[in-house]
Amino acid sequence: MTTAATDLQHTHSLLEVEDLAVEFSTYGGIVQAVRGVSFAVERGKTMAIVGESGCGKSVTVQAMMGLIPMPPGRITSGSARLNGVEILGRNIINGKDIRGSQIGMIFQDPMTSLNPTMTIGDQIAEPLQVHRGYSHKRAFAEAIELLSITKIPEAAKRARQYPFEFSGGMLQRAMIAMAIACKPSILIADEPTTALDVTIQAQILDLLQDLQKETGMAIILITHDLGVVARMADDVAVMYAGKVVEHGGVDDIFYRSAHPYTLGLKLAMPTNDPSKQHKLNPIQGSPPDLFAPPIGCGYCPRCPYSMKICDVKDPDILPVEEMHESRCWLQHPQAITVPDELYCGEKA
Questions:
Q1: Cβ pair 112, 169 in contact under 8 A
Q2: Spatial CA neighbour of 45 closest among 172, 208, 256, 177
Q3: CB 204 within 8 A of CB 174
Q4: Which of 138-147, 279-288, 338-347 has the highest mean pLDDT?
Q5: What is the DSSP string of 237-290?
Q6: Which DSSP category does 338 fall into?
Q7: Which residue, 113, 108, 20, 33, is CA-closest to 73?
Q8: Who wins on pLDDT, 273 or 141?
Q9: Count of CB atoms within 10 A of residue 100's CB?
Q10: Count of CB atoms within 10 A of residue 291's CB?
Q11: Nearest of 187, 14, 4, 37 to residue 84 by alpha carbon
């Protein structure tokens, strides 16, 4: 179920994902990894998908990109439309490849995402040869230019080196160069700063923002780091147990949190405030078992504000304010008490 605010946003969007559900058949049963996810990405904007490990962030975009092995994976419902054209289950739109050409992707671990037997330049040149029909000479020259754009020094020399000769930060830059080689309209960055030190993380994020300004591409940023979200995102989708539990602008998520899980993520962050540095506030408990998802709210057993209805009925996504939504019974117009910590908009 989508609200009028969501419907309005979708009419102006580059990418629209609606009611996406993905499951995996395993020896232990069927894992319902993604359970009805909807969101929209606007041109030139950055949308962050955040949540704990295992909440379905990566599976959502991998399903959209056609990267889910089938079997054991299976898309059971939903749609994903790029410029109004359905892309779920398709590789080509209007004669052009979708993956790598219209949508680029930076994977989580650059150390294992590159081929150790090929030079960096050849790996960046390959999508240009496959998707654009370039000769090897032209594609390799473009690869050198892309390495320069991603601020790798001595690009011509580096293009002829192998992945083991690059540092972690340089490998991530090479991955970005490969992802943007065909000038995609959307770049998916899956944990782009994982395993990098703080200084290199900042450089990678600055690079992504600079490239976005230059090319106008949209970015889908998958992360569990709220600091990265605050720095990069325009819109944020908070996922838990395979569902989007809150969606809104970055200021809505940080300053007007409307779901207890979002509030818990914020409270679990380290802070520079000396009065609060003595103790972290982790979210108690564990996420639900997605072999047998709960019939009620998935966050109910861990929620300090849970009510009787939370355990027996899953709430719909409810409007908080324009372009801000939350999947929580506390946002229902008939909710009797609302904790002061949660923002609930103007109640009728």
A1: no
A2: 208
A3: no
A4: 138-147
A5: EEEETTEEEEEEEHHHHHHS--SHHHHHHHHTS--S-GGGTT---PPPS----T
A6: -
A7: 33
A8: 141
A9: 19
A10: 11
A11: 14
User: Which run of H or E residues covers position 85?
Assistant: strand 85-86
Residue 160 pLDDT level (bands cut at 50, 70, 90) = very high
Residue closest to 229 by CA, chosen among 326, 305, 257: 257
Q: Which residue has the tokens 């324009």?
A: 322
Q: Are 238 and 51 contacting, i.e. CB atoms less than 8 angstroms apart?
A: yes
Q: How far apart are CA 229 and CA 247, in angstroms?
A: 13
pLDDT mean across residues, the chain: 85
pLDDT of residue 14: 87
Helices (H) and strands (E) in the chain, counts: 12, 14
Please, which pLDDT band fits residue 1 given cuts at 50, 70 and 90?
A: very low
Structure tokens at 298: 């998935």
Please name the amino acid found at residue 330: L
- If we measure between CA atoms, which residue out of 33, 28, 93 comes closest to residue 63? 33
Is 335 within 8 Å of 258 (Cβ atoms)?
Answer: no
Residue with tokens 């790798």: 152
Amino acid identity, position 146:
L
Which residues are within 8 A (CB) of 101 and not within 5 positions of it... i.e. 6 or more apart? 127, 131, 182, 184
Helices 168-179 and 198-215 cross at an angle (nearest 10°) of 20
In angstroms, rounded to a whole number, what is the distance separating the alpha carbons of residues 208 and 230? 14
Please provide the DSSP assignment of 135-201 as one string.
-HHHHHHHHHHHHHHTT-SSHHHHTTS-GGGS-HHHHHHHHHHHHTTT--SEEEEESTTTT--HHHH
Give the 3-state secondary structure of residue 41: strand
- Please give the Cα distance from 228 to 329 (Å, whole number): 29
DSSP class of residue 17?
Answer: E
Measured CA to CA in angstroms, residue 68 lies from 24, 115, 328 at distances of 10, 20, 30
For residue 87, pLDDT over 80 is answered with yes
